[in-house]
Amino acid sequence: MGQSPRPHQIPVVVLAGFLGSGKTTLLNHLLHRSGGSRIGAVVNDFGAIEIDAMAVAGALGDSTVSLGNGCLCCAVDAGELDLYLDRLARPETGIDVIVIEASGLAEPQELVRMVLASENPRVVYGGLVEVVDAAEFDATRAKHPEIDRHLALADLVVVNKLDRATDAERVLRQVRSRTDRAAVVPATYGRIDPEFLFDCRPSEERIGQLSFDDLHDDAHDTHGPDGEAHGHAGHLHTGYDSLSFVSDVPLDPRRLMRFLDSRPEGLYRIKGYVDFGAHDPRNRYAVHAVGRFLRFYPEPWAPGAGRLTQLVLIGSGIDAPLLGKELEACRSDAPHTADEHGMWGVLRYVQDPDEPDPGADDAPDRDSEPLYDPESEPLYDPESASEA
């Protein structure tokens, strides 16, 4: 079961929402608060993107600008999307995450299908984020009843402008009732912690040169006559809940799949590595889960490396202690219980590098089929497990 090294994969996040919900505001927040990560932003036009004239450093093409912090911004239509995903995913761009703003491009469902259907081995689905205007939620539903379908498809819902809503708690309840266990995050001014969506790499030490983030801080974090800070510094962005789990005892693959299949409401991302012990002693398994999307990537253990399971779970309103106990219950240091059927559930989510993503075929039916399951079977069958 040895595997060749997989290429570094860039998560592609689809950012959706109706006109005025705050998608572009959220995107600008991510671009200016990327925490050292390089973002490839795919938009309809550059008009609403806050690009400091001094920070525009060049271009990769006629409709791509390069920002001073290394981020790139592309203006495209739906027909060009795959072309620009290929362009942004080239190793020389140094991009860490790609964010597609869905407005005017296509239905969110169609964009998800396009990302899943991409044959580019350097990109991976990074989640569908739906932005909702809390102050206009009722009016939006009356004008666009399809918002209920969008909420059911979403992996993460940002309830924006919550400070302007007359009954914020009612709006949050209504949004939660229309999602399929998605994380629902309240926000103002589109400010959510970027770590919800992608891993922010530490900013490198800079001497004698300001980054684009630094320039943006100076321009926007000003003080008024009262001496109080105004602008971004005066508003903390919405944080997230997380759990770090480490185990030197291998996990049982059947138990872990049962845990993943029964993920709680509000759990958005899972990342890290799993040791399945005697079930596959030669490989550790990188795990990438966003909403209902799941992939495992076998990687040979490095010679002499300590064998640990290391997972990080990220969400909103999750019960971290309870999740920790459930993961503890997945541990199994019993080599004699390993059998040839034990890894079947995991291996169904290992993509053959020579085949397109099987999950792409199910993308149009996300409202009726769990995206976790590319073969429309239950993740974990207790009867077959007890027979194995």
Folded structure, characterized:
This protein is an alpha/beta fold and 388 residues long. The chain folds into two domains: 10-234, 3-Layer(aba) Sandwich (Rossmann fold), CATH 3.40.50; 241-387, 2-Layer Sandwich (Hypothetical Protein Yjia, Chain: A,domain 2). The chain is 23% helix and 22% strand. It has eleven helices and 14 strands. The chain has helices at 23-32, 81-88, 108-117, 137-143, 147-153, 168-177, 212-220, 253-261, 320-328, 344-347, 382-387; strands at residues 10-16, 39-43, 58-61, 64-66, 72-75, 97-101, 123-133, 156-160, 183-186, 241-247, 267-274, 283-290, 293-300, 309-315. It has a nine-stranded mixed sheet, with helices on both faces. Strand 8, helix 6 and strand 9 form a beta-alpha-beta unit. Residues 53-57, 202-237 and 358-388 have low confidence and may be disordered.
Topology:
Elements: E1 10-16, H1 23-32, E2 39-43, E3 58-61, E4 64-66, E5 72-75, H2 81-88, E6 97-101, H3 108-117, E7 123-133, H4 137-143, H5 147-153, E8 156-160, H6 168-177, E9 183-186, H7 212-220, E10 241-247, H8 253-261, E11 267-274, E12 283-290, E13 293-300, E14 309-315, H9 320-328, H10 344-347, H11 382-387
Parallel strand pairs: 1-6, 1-7, 2-5, 2-6, 7-8, 8-9
Antiparallel strand pairs: 3-4, 4-5, 10-14, 11-12, 11-14, 12-13
